[in-house]
């Protein structure tokens, strides 16, 4: 075990950076979080997956978020392609307490940033990080400038880049982001009062409506406000934008082209202001390296169709903290920690990317989407759960939490067992997202009576450079980190 805890600089105070900073500080690490803006600040990405609720509980901010009075989200209604409406209701599928929120991000992000500070992280706002410093290929610190101050150089043992699309390491230092041409989209949106969700929508659920040129969203926020927007390819957006004198006129026109959107906004009043933002999807060649981890949008960005941005940010923030804590405790070496982070984060991204890309083939139909989700969920062989349950699990973000603890990829706890554990008695910490039977089986496999195994191990494929018998996996109790299955349990798992 190392003699002293490391120093970590976290760039960016969004959900990913705040999650990483808070968890590291709780683990005894010296953490400085540098955020360019002054919170609260506006941000899009208002529809939150239920997986985030488990992570928020684990970082200690669940009561604080609940106190904000956000709209409770229980699923999604999709009016997609030529099919009738189809509903994913998490409470019907997984239990009455499987839910999340539709949030005002300026408030939501403030709560998480304050929680990181309360956990012991030093938070500096209006701190402009100019660049990440490298010694060869190793990140060793940053150059940054406080508001009204002089440029400073600060060293660190690890840098977590949660700088979003600015991507100080991936976009600016290495320039190794790969765009996805099919997802070079643009979003235009605004806010309304007194809109209406489509009939049969899950309580507080988002509505997603397809069109020949893209798709619309309708998100019910608190105080009877609704976020309403349209996403289309950049080429179509540029052509259409020439038709209008203002972005307000353009948004009104594209909403008027949808009978569904005219229906839900018939009695609504538009609030001032229309916003436009590029939704270009991309992924960096590497999500981590010597001395650094890329969290959230700094590593990858995905079309917002399934509302997964905050999930990917918080999930990767948790993984980065686990990796650094276990490195410092000597539980893994640096190549192992990097392979662990890269594998889990990239697998989560690619699963969602594969599912989203299928939706842009609107003629495929929901049966095909559900069948694809069933394949992507990697549920246990012989599992009798329906494909729509697999789809619901993925868009809830729960598949990633399950697979972070998955012993052999195809030998996970049954989905219903996993979700039941999360749904009874309120939101559960990450380690409790396994069914009781799976946890009991793991305890029986422990090689030492003093070792507490709280999650099933994650399988590392041979292609990830390590022997499958090493069995690296995520643990959250009694402390956050990476562990490896014992040789006896690895043999038992085959």
TrEMBL record:
Coiled-coil ranges (or none): none
| Highest taxon of the lineage | Bacteria
Gene Ontology molecular function: monooxygenase activity
Against InterPro entries, the record matches this protein to: FAD/NAD-bd_sf (IPR036188), Flavin-dep_Halogenase_NPB (IPR050816), Flavin_halogenase (IPR006905)
Pfam family membership, one: Trp_halogenase
Name the family the entry cites.
Answer: Belongs to the flavin-dependent halogenase family. Bacterial tryptophan halogenase subfamily.
Protein name (database record):
Putative tryptophan halogenase
Native species of this protein? Dactylosporangium aurantiacum subsp. hamdenensis
Q: What is the lineage of its organism?
A: Bacteria, Bacillati, Actinomycetota, Actinomycetes, Micromonosporales
Gene that encodes it:
tiaM
